[in-house]
Amino acid sequence: MGSSSAAPASTKARLRITRRGRLVLTSLVVGPLVAVGVIAGVSATSAIATSSSSAVVEFDYLTINSGESLWQVAERIAPASDPRDVIADIVSLNQMSTSSVEPGQRIAIPTAYSAG
């Protein structure tokens, strides 16, 4: 009585990934990388915007004389510059809604103009 046992054939199981499996695996790897890139890009953009908006402007004060307009002030303090640019800077610095001024009103003038 011979017991004959058949030895199992040693075969290596080969893993096969289907097309759908490759797509899933690729998206699992690439998805987080894209998310990190987007977050880094948004962070870099806000850092740039923050650093450029923190400019320091030095200024002096000037009192408006009776009958004087902002145009006349601009021509007096910066004769070599376009008065429209000077007026725009003054209005922006003083957070004025219009370019109208009243006699006796004190306004801030950027030192770049007050030195001239």
Gist of the model:
The chain is mainly alpha-helical and 116 residues long. The protein has helices at residues 19-52, 70-77, 83-93, 111-114; strands at residues 59-63, 106-110.
Q: Care to describe what's here?
A:
The protein has 4 helices and 2 strands, in the order H-E-H-H-E-H. The chain folds into 2 domains: 37 residues; 56 residues, Membrane-bound Lytic Murein Transglycosylase D, Chain A (Roll), CATH 3.10.350. The mean pLDDT is 80. It is rod-shaped and about 110 Å long. The chain has 116 residues and is mostly helical. 49% of the residues lie in helices and 9% in strands. Strands 1-2 form a two-stranded antiparallel ribbon. Helix 2 packs across helix 3.
Portion of residues within helices: 40-55%
- Assembly form of the protein: single chain
- Cross-sheet strand order for the largest sheet: 1-2
Write down the overall mean pLDDT. Answer: 80
Summary keywords:
116 residues; mainly alpha; Membrane-bound Lytic Murein Transglycosylase D, Chain A; 2 domains; two-stranded antiparallel ribbon; LysM peptidoglycan-binding domain-containing protein; LysM_dom_sf; LysM
